[in-house]
Write a structure and sequence with these properties.
The protein has 16 helices and 15 strands. By secondary structure, the protein is α+β, with helices and mostly antiparallel strands. The protein has 3 domains: 150 residues, no CATH class; 139 residues, no CATH class; 143 residues, no CATH class. Helix 1 runs antiparallel to helix 6, helix 7 runs antiparallel to helix 9 and helix 11 packs antiparallel against helix 13. The termini are far apart.
Length: 481
């Protein structure tokens, strides 16, 4: 939230999550801690005096569960008080911290839309030089040098890390670490040959599965499994996946402690040897199936990508009101209800919604009839809302991966994308929608359990499981038979 008297850093209006903004925001918070502890308290005071909060509200904030917010608030309030050197340091920190706020004003990470991820290393290297300059001109007390040096060292570490690792490399490292921590009998369950049919055997219902479940891992192994999961997903994607898994406890309580309702029955599988040759991995269980195909430094595919939620909205208990896939539902309803009468005649394809997604768990998703209204028939704000809905699916994954997939979707033609809706328009009524373009298909269905049970899938019509890119990969490079 903006603070009175503080000049706000202006960001682009159309933004979406990105990894680089995360690093900038973290650095901004650390810098604000240094500023408030070592620079701001000394303004106009003798060394050794303490700066105390001036208002009851400030005191309450300082005692909150997030003390760094109180520190950044103090830097906001005293923005114009420090010396010119400290003033520049605070301004830099505020800019970095503001990278965490998205276009809706909610907590999140933001980067400019329709731009590839900026080169993080040059930014971080330059930022280190800026910090050294600022510390020199801020006349820091001698005892402030230690945290300042630590801050520079930390930001240098993040800079080197950003330069060294691609998503594919991080996935490979995480997969290797995970497998290395397993016992031989666990490896036999978790590791498969790349060409085994199991790689294409995906589903989203509760059923017996191959792979190694959380239930059979010890604590260090689970930590490494979560590290693998986070290597492929964005922050919000990871949060959605974890929350979906946690809903099994809600179902366990509702279903009289049914043993099939178990938040530990999510299975990890590694296909092939992580490295230069094609390999893949999967996490799967009830209402979650995430499939990755990788080769060297390239992420070949992240589809089929399935997320579901039962209940779609928790009705009772301490988690009442939780809606893990709320955005996927609300954006689509906002779009269809915002159509004019003529547009809605085209977009509404049926009064009754199908009982489930049409493509089910097919190994290859065939292109469906492009029902509904074409994006070319939408107004600019309506088309923007449609693209925002598409991005909600794509940016389940880390930004480097998502940007590439979104570029492919858009290059095939925005105006050729169709949006169709079936069923009721009001919350609580069964409904279904489909978004389809030349290269992709997204389906969402909420009809089961009195329209409180969501299935949402993203399919690549050309490249599920990386099949299309793998074919090209093998055509272009020699491989042993």
């Amino acid at each position: 939230m903006p603070v009175a008297g503080v000049e706000r850093f202006e960001r682009p209006q159309n933004v979406r999550p990105g990894q680089s903004a995360t690093h900038m925001s973290i650095l901004g918070d650390i810098l604000l801690v240094v500023i408030n502890q070592e620079i701001v308290p000394k303004t106009g005071q003798e060394d050794g005096e303490r700066h105390e909060p001036q208002t009851q509200e400030d005191q309450t904030t300082r005692n909150s569960a997030l003390p760094w917010l109180a520190l950044s608030s103090r830097a906001d309030e005293e923005r114009k008080a420090p010396s010119p050197g400290a003033d520049s340091l605070i301004h830099t920190a505020l800019i970095l911290r503001d990278a965490r706020v998205n276009s809706n004003g909610k907590a999140g990470v933001a980067v400019p839309a329709r731009r590839r991820r900026p080169a993080t290393f040059p930014f971080a290297f330059g930022f280190n030089l800026l910090c050294l300059w600022a510390m020199h001109h801020a006349n820091l007390p001698s005892r402030s040098k230690v945290p300042s040096i630590l801050f520079v060292a930390l930001s240098f570490f993040l800079a080197l890390r950003a330069r060294a690792h691609s998503p594919a490399q991080e996935m490979a490292d995480a997969a290797k670490n995970f497998v290395a921590a397993l016992k031989p009998d666990q490896q036999a369950k978790a590791v498969f040959e790349w060409k085994e049919d199991e790689r294409l055997n995906w589903h989203f219902i509760p059923k017996p599965r191959k792979g190694l479940p959380f239930k059979e891992m010890n604590s260090p192994q689970r930590a490494l499994a979560h590290a693998l999961l986070s290597s492929g997903l964005s922050q919000r994607g990871f949060a959605k996946a974890a929350t979906i898994m946690s809903l099994e406890q809600v179902l366990f309580d509702l279903d009289d402690n049914a043993p099939s309702r178990n938040a530990e029955l999510y299975f990890f599988s590694i296909f092939g040897q992580p490295g230069k040759q094609p390999w893949g991995w999967r996490i799967e269980g009830h209402h979650l199936s995430l499939n990755f195909a990788v080769a060297g430094d390239e992420v070949l595919a992240v589809t089929p990508s399935f997320l579901g939620a039962n209940p779609a909205q928790v009705q009772t208990g301490p988690r009442k009101g939780l809606r893990v896939l709320a955005v996927e539902e609300d954006l689509a309803r906002e779009l269809v209800k915002g159509l004019d009468a003529e547009q809605r005649k085209t977009a509404l394809v049926a009064t009754d919604a199908p009982r489930d997604i049409i493509t089910g768990n097919a190994r290859k998703a065939n292109s469906l009839e492009p029902l509904g209204i074409a994006a070319s028939k939408l107004t600019a704000p309506q088309k923007e809302l449609l693209m925002k809905l598409i991005e909600e699916y794509v940016f389940r994954y880390r930004s480097e991966i998502a940007e590439s997939d979104l570029k492919k979707i858009r290059q095939a033609g925005d105006d050729r994308i169709h949006f169709g809706w079936a069923g009721g328009l009001q919350p609580g009524q069964g409904h279904y929608y489909r978004i389809q373009g030349p290269t992709f298909l997204m389906e969402y269905d909420n009809t089961q359990n009195n329209a409180n049970h969501i299935h949402a899938v993203w399919r690549d019509l050309q490249n599920d499981f990386g099949e299309d890119l793998l074919r090209k990969h093998y055509e272009q490079a020699p491989h042993s038979k």
